[in-house]
Amino acid sequence: GAGVSQSPSNKVTEKGKDVELRCDPISGHTALYWYRQSLGQGLEFLIYFQGNSAPDKSGLPSDRFSAERTGGSVSTLTIQRTQQEDSAVYLCASSLRPTANYGYTFGSGTRLTVV
Amino acid sequence: DQQVKQNSPSLSVQEGRISILNCDYTNSMFDYFLWYKKYPAEGPTFLISISSIKDKNEDGRFTVFLNKSAKHLSLHIVPSQPGDSAVYFCAASVVDSSYKLIFGSGTRLLVRP
What we know:
The complex is a heterodimer. By secondary structure, chain A is mostly beta strands.
């Protein structure tokens, strides 16, 4: 597609349930990032995928969070046993290659609300 | 520990005037600095970047200035337009294997017609 696509756009879940968030990056983009933005905060790095290399998981806040990227394309972020503090907008971004000076393209995000 | 800080949560300017958005950082190892713009319900959009070896980068109405000794950068928008009203995020990166960005908390800019 023309841009980074994320689904669902909104998700309301009960505390303790598992959720899966999906990201379709721009075709051909090898680098994929997940960030989250909590209310009134900046974007917080979660995880990075680059080609077939081992992902950089250094930003995942707890072992309830995991992500995978199948076939070097679609990525899924899974949050197990959701807590209220997980409520945030989860943003996916991709770039043609790892880059520092041209930025990357973000999707519109998934707004997760844990009640 | 906030490595990138935007101390002004909001800014209001008159159309046609200059908007100056500020950002401070603490990590002297940052190699690149970027500005993103975000409209409601949309993802952030890349605006402009600057390498740590430069002190100025200009792109149309947008200019970013970097003062390394003060660990400070600013984004100037001249002239400001109502369509510039958005949240602006400053971000910084260390050029390592992941190029992940450290973001500030954002400044909401309102350009009044």
